[in-house]
Amino acid sequence: MLLAVAAGLVVLWVLGSLGGKESVAPPPATKAKAVTDSGRLPGVGEAVRDGKFEFTVTRLQAGVGNVGGEYGQDAQGQFFLVHMSVKNIGDRAQTFDGADQKLFDRNGSKYSADTAAGLHLDGSESFLEQINPGNVVDGVVVFDIPKGADPVRIELHDSLFSGGTTVDLTTRR
Questions:
Q1: DSSP H or E run through 85
Q2: Tens of pLDDT along 131-156?
Q3: Complete domains list, the chain, with CATH
């Protein structure tokens, strides 16, 4: 039963990543505000753009041991929650998927989002969320990182194949 649920989630993820896109080639990446005029990376609270999405990281939560309570999921290390708003700045619907986001720590280690844990989090709104033009979704992307890891930046993507844009998690604007 658990294997069937896991297989179904993988199929949904693949279909969601492909759904809503009419072109065969991935759209060109837009690195708007990847680096500010002063030459620094944008920080928490600043809007950045990639493709058809404008992202604003609004809050960070480190050291979370469990999401979803008794029937939820425990972290292997610790959950690091990245709260963000995602606005569709394009002219057609686009699917936002937390699995497309990447977290980096001070040592250069790269972490993928834990979408299964995110499903246990009420209001995560980060698993295959269809966003219509002009609409905004406030979501939470969950990462399972080692205890003691020190996340310093996140790479945000409007899709699996986009160029991405980076936010410095050590500064707040």
A1: strand 73-88
A2: 999 999 999 999 999 999 999 999 99
A3: 2-172 (2.60.40.1240)
